[in-house]
Amino acid sequence: MKTFVYSAHAYDRPFLEEASGKRHTLIFSEEKLTIDTARYALGFDAIAVFTADDCSAPVLDKLYAQGIRYIALRSAGYDHINLHHAAQLGIRVAHVPEYSPYAIAEHAVAMLMMMNRKLLDAQLLMKLQDFRLDTLTGFDIHGKKVGVIGTGKIGVAFARIMLGFGATVLASDPVQAEEAIALGIQYVSLEELLRTSDIVSVHCPLNETTKYLLSAKQFLWMKSDSIVINTSRGAIVNTRDLIAALEDKKIGGACLDVYEREKGLFFEDHRNDIIQDEDFLKLRGMKNVLITGHQAFLTREALTGIAATTVHTLDCWQLGYKSPHELHADESFTRNVNTTHTKDPGSITVLSI
Question: Among this protein's residues, is 294 annotated catalytic?
Fold first, then answer.
């Protein structure tokens, strides 16, 4: 299948090429999909896109007019595509429901430990040959309460690590995962979780229910020294309310791998640009905020899984099968249950996130 791959970077191209072999013609571009760059896909059967790409209705209209009938999302999340409009046009869409939950869970833990134990400050002082410890006091994770919002595979993987530290883990999720219950994790309301947790880690998808799930009201519930971790989607946290909560010392700190307005910012080189986003600049300048550029997924294992699933979808479509990873207009994030699918070459059981 002739596929134009948008938002392709040096880190993921080799994995896609290896997974594809000679079965598909993949043309790569670092350009994001926009209404202007949609023309690049003229003459192709399918496109493969990432989270920064624009799959809104006007873009889909232009793609359809050029002959695109298949869109492979190289991500689990699909908040960047208008599924209803794609269905109306007859464009088939698939995502990567599962790759490596450990990649994101472990990155969340790494960010937590870097902030808690002041590792960036310690490294800077080391380079300055200032070996005083006066500003580097952290706290034990052991014995603390850790709140996990969303107990899909990533949330449960993060919870397991926290249990390994000796923490007590609370969870909030409309769907209670059997695996979480078996681990002794207690499900509570979001309010109770936020009021009692020393650390809060977000592992839920972005949809109408979860947008701004953490806003001013929720930050008022939290402990004044608590740490928020978000490795899911930026808009789950209200950025301006977060800044206000940090400035007013309503919470202790934030670890962010995602940002509400990251499109056009993350995944790109802005060394010669003047960034105009005042909220981002304010967050970046805070000593109690740690930001990474949406890199939590970036492990060899995760990239291998993303590429394999993406190419498997292309295989199915090329042979006339339905991909087990296809999304529909009424798709919802139902987690921790097996999804049924039609037979296909190399049929596999897919778990939702």
Answer: yes
Tokens of 149: 């919002």
Domain containing 231 — which CATH number? 3.40.50.720
Considering 242, 271, 291, which residue would you say is the last residue of a domain?
A: 291
pLDDT along the chain (353 residues), means of 10: 96 96 95 96 97 95 97 93 96 94 97 97 97 97 98 97 98 96 97 98 94 98 98 97 98 98 92 96 96 96 97 97 89 35 30 30
- Whether 106 is a known active-site residue: answer no
Give catalytic status of residue 23 as yes or no: no
- Strands (E) across the chain are located at 2-5, 25-28, 46-49, 70-73, 92-94, 145-149, 168-172, 186-187, 199-202, 227-230, 253-256, 289-291, 326-327, 338-339, 350-351
Measured CA to CA, the distance from residue 286 to residue 239 in angstroms comes to 13
Decide which of 291, 309, 343 is a domain's last residue: 291
Give SS3 for 121. helix
Residue 115 lies in domain:
101-291
Q: Do 279 and 305 have their domain in common? A: no
Active-site choice (98, 260, 262, 326): 262
* Among candidate residues 10, 96, 3, the one with its CA nearest the CA of residue 308: 96
